[in-house]
Specification:
The protein is an alpha/beta fold. It is built from 12 helices and 5 strands. A 5-stranded parallel β-sheet has the order 2-3-4-1-5. Strand 3, helix 9 and strand 4 form a beta-alpha-beta unit. The protein starts with a helix and ends in a 27-residue tail after the last helix. The structure holds adenosine-5'-diphosphate and magnesium ion. Magnesium ion binds next to helix 6 and strand 3.
Length: about 270
């Protein structure tokens, strides 16, 4: 009991001075020790869960996002959806707090002792594709099925690699009704066919992912741009930055290619 030993001297002195009873001293030592152990457990579990950027519900300004019902989020933080192996969809434009909320709910789940894993769709599909090449797809799927809550962030920012939809489907199917998920996306479900490059796979995915599902749509402006909104021209603010770009390639315009600009989608 390293922490208890650390504070033993001070506690004994308090005991000698009659500032606490023997029972209180034992209680104080045990509480210190348990708190330290609990903090360590949470710290390790957060690293294991890949919840690298720690976001909290306390740090979320609900007044900035009036379309979002705070109560609904607080009920989700009670984690019944995790125990019921449901799927929570957070859908909305960039910067509206989808990643923040998914991370914060992940932190709540870790604190409550649930196993959690956070990843982006691109990383998840990349890991599955690599496992398939190595002949270890079954093991990889089993790995991702171990977690009570799997958080898949950033669905829709990057095109899914060929065959990626199929791999994601295999995982979703393996977790179906067994483990909870949080999915964040800047795309409506109608766009999943384009997103996964395969309407059949997209339909099968949505069939699983919308059964026992909670859909939270955030319709607001970007928190990232809140201080600079006045610097962004209105037509860009409302179209290019707030609304998702079309997935399907646009007809090529003649002349010079447009300079790259706008939102850093990979970081969405
Ligand atoms: P999204 O994933 O929807 O693109 P993020 O969750 O990454 O947006 O939010 C972008 C940044 O703004 C993050 O640093 C996040 O913590 C912060 N943020 C977003 N919405 C809020 C909010 N309502 N209150 C406090 N911080 C917010
Ligand atoms: Mg995000």
């Amino acid at each position: 009991m390293p922490r208890a030993i650390e504070i033993l001297d001070a506690t004994v002195r308090q005991l000698e001075r009659g500032e606490m009873t023997a029972l209180e001293a034992i209680d104080a030592l045990l509480v210190e020790e348990l708190t330290l152990r609990e903090n360590r457990r949470v710290k390790t579990a957060l690293v294991m869960a890949r919840l690298s950027t720690i976001k909290t519900l306390a740090g979320f300004d609900f007044s900035f996002q009036p379309s979002l019902d705070k109560n609904r989020i607080m009920v989700l933080a009670e984690l019944k959806f995790v125990d019921r192996a449901e799927v929570l969809h957070l859908v909305g434009p960039p910067g509206t707090g989808k990643s923040h909320l998914s991370l914060a709910l992940g932190v709540e789940a870790v604190k409550a002792g649930r196993s959690v894993y956070f990843t982006t769709l691109a990383d998840l599909v990349g890991a599955l594709a690599k496992a398939e090449r190595d002949g270890s797809l079954r093991e990889k799927i089993r790995f991702f099925c171990r977690f009570a809550l799997l958080i898949v962030d950033e669905i829709g920012y990057l095109p899914v690699i060929p065959g990626g939809g199929n791999l994601f489907f295999q995982l979703v199917n393996a977790r179906y009704e067994k483990g909870a998920m949080i999915l964040t996306s800047n795309r409506g479900f109608a766009e999943w066919g384009d997103l996964f490059g395969d309407p059949v796979v997209a339909t099968a995915l949505l069939d699983r992912l919308l059964h026992h599902a909670i859909v939270i749509q955030i319709e607001g402006s970007s928190y990232r741009l809140r201080q600079h909104a006045d610097l962004v021209p209105e037509h860009i603010r409302s179209k290019a930055l707030i609304q998702p770009q079309p997935l399907t390639p646009q007809p090529k315009r003649r002349g010079r290619p447009p300079k790259h600009g706008g939102v850093d989608h990979a970081n969405g």
